[in-house]
Amino acid sequence: MSEERERVLRMLEEGKITAEQAARLIEALGRPRSAPGGPRSEGWLPPPRPPRPARVRMADLDRIPDIVASAVSSAMKSGFGAREGELRTEFPGKSSLFLKSVSGDVTVSGWDEDRIAIEGNTAMTRVREREDIVMVRTISGDFSVSLPREARFEVTTVSGDVKVEGVGGRFALKAVSGDVRLTGFAGEARVQTVSGEARFVDFAGRVEVESKSGDIELLTDGAVGGSVVSKSGEVALCLGERADVLLDLECEESGGIEFDAGLAHEVVEQAERRLKVRIGAGTQELKVRTSDADINVRRRKED
């Protein structure tokens, strides 16, 4: 990928341009340029050549939101080496997953089997194995994966929602233009979202969450630690009676902190737009930072 296209995608990731603007810029970069110095005589100019479509690597697709992804996926031909239509396959003895998806929802579920099973109905899918790792790249279609509960995995989606449930290992998620929902996990999770909401339900362990423009909600009744960073989306923490956490909350530029007085806690430090409280034993610390959004801490209602 050219340096100019790399710069466009970087600006898109940073929120400096929209997906539509990125698509137009990438399209413009693929057009042939005029020779320097203006028009020349016929003997100077090389023979005209038809423009060739821009070549996009699969490794770059996780950085391109929906409108760009649609344009590049339609240009990808037989060189992709992929399967089309329904896909069902299993990988006995595998316990690591690397998955990238464009324009489709992804569901990852933990189970007690010693194998990885994948199922989906997509326009294009490529599956490869390397040692203990299963690598999947897919375009346009929903996808589901079942894997060992303690498996390690990494999932990147563009224009699609991600659901993860019943896992307990270490994993990383990155979502562009899609929501993330994690349910019933105990382990270490790193989650990055560009323009979607993130919701964590019934979890324990450590989380590293970063969001540019989506709200974040965490519902827990156990011991949690890590960090939550949000640029412009609100952060809500719903804590049960058995919650165990030292909360370090701060709205760095604007916004406010709302704290439910009915939630048993001990104030450790308090200042303007800053609050540090201990809930339960406070054995782990969870830092929450927002640039331009509120932080709301409340008692979780019993289901």
From TrEMBL:
Pfam families, per the entry: DUF4097, SHOCT-like_DUF2089-C
Q: Where is this region: Disordered?
A: 29-54
Q: In which domain of life is the source organism classified? A: Bacteria
Which positions fall inside the YvlB/LiaX N-terminal domain? Answer: 3-31
The segment(s) forming the DUF4097 domain are 133-298
By what name is this protein known? Answer: Adhesin domain-containing protein
